[in-house]
Amino acid sequence: MADIDVKIAQWKLVEVGRVLLIRSGPYTGKLAAIVEIIDHKRVLVDGPSTEENKIVPRHALPLAHATLTHFVIPKLPRAAGTGPVKKLWEKNEIDGKWAKSTIAQKTERAERRKNLTDFERFKVLRLRKQARYEVQKSHAKVRAAAPKS
């Protein structure tokens, strides 16, 4: 038999210390860490964010209402209280890492786009037309310079 090295996609595992994004419920869009696994469908989460408006109190959360992120708080003990979770959260700079992630940036961009006024939407439309025109001009130059076959 051939030696086959199978590796599991580590970031998809439900584990204590895994940071997740809450997708539904009163804490939609906020981050929390898994503190304890209740059963195969529910986990106990705690979100001691450094920002006041992003704090998630400790509660049971169905996994169907969450998206796992690739961030993990290493060496988080099972059923750790809010104090130790908060210390490890700040030590690992979870909020800073999340702000730099592409998911957070796309969400923030979509939220900003959603809250535009009518005039701001019009300005975006004009800027997109302008950019498209410049791209078409440069493509036309490249096509004109290309040798004819």
UniProtKB/TrEMBL annotation:
<feature type="domain" description="Large ribosomal subunit protein eL14">
    <location>
        <begin position="57"/>
        <end position="132"/>
    </location>
</feature>
<dbReference type="InterPro" id="IPR039660">
    <property type="entry name" value="Ribosomal_eL14"/>
</dbReference>
<dbReference type="InterPro" id="IPR005824">
    <property type="entry name" value="KOW"/>
</dbReference>
<protein>
    <recommendedName>
        <fullName>KOW domain-containing protein</fullName>
    </recommendedName>
</protein>
<dbReference type="GO" id="GO:0042273">
    <property type="term" value="P:ribosomal large subunit biogenesis"/>
</dbReference>
<keyword id="KW-0687">Ribonucleoprotein</keyword>
<dbReference type="Pfam" id="PF01929">
    <property type="entry name" value="Ribosomal_L14e"/>
</dbReference>
<dbReference type="GO" id="GO:0022625">
    <property type="term" value="C:cytosolic large ribosomal subunit"/>
</dbReference>
<dbReference type="Pfam" id="PF00467">
    <property type="entry name" value="KOW"/>
</dbReference>
<dbReference type="InterPro" id="IPR008991">
    <property type="entry name" value="Translation_prot_SH3-like_sf"/>
</dbReference>
<dbReference type="InterPro" id="IPR002784">
    <property type="entry name" value="Ribosomal_eL14_dom"/>
</dbReference>
<dbReference type="GO" id="GO:0003735">
    <property type="term" value="F:structural constituent of ribosome"/>
</dbReference>
<dbReference type="InterPro" id="IPR014722">
    <property type="entry name" value="Rib_uL2_dom2"/>
</dbReference>
<comment type="function">
    <text>Component of the ribosome, a large ribonucleoprotein complex responsible for the synthesis of proteins in the cell. The small ribosomal subunit (SSU) binds messenger RNAs (mRNAs) and translates the encoded message by selecting cognate aminoacyl-transfer RNA (tRNA) molecules. The large subunit (LSU) contains the ribosomal catalytic site termed the peptidyl transferase center (PTC), which catalyzes the formation of peptide bonds, thereby polymerizing the amino acids delivered by tRNAs into a polypeptide chain.</text>
</comment>
<feature type="domain" description="KOW">
    <location>
        <begin position="21"/>
        <end position="46"/>
    </location>
</feature>
<comment type="similarity">
    <text>Belongs to the eukaryotic ribosomal protein eL14 family.</text>
</comment>
<keyword id="KW-0689">Ribosomal protein</keyword>
<keyword id="KW-0963">Cytoplasm</keyword>
<dbReference type="GO" id="GO:0006412">
    <property type="term" value="P:translation"/>
</dbReference>
<dbReference type="GO" id="GO:0003723">
    <property type="term" value="F:RNA binding"/>
</dbReference>
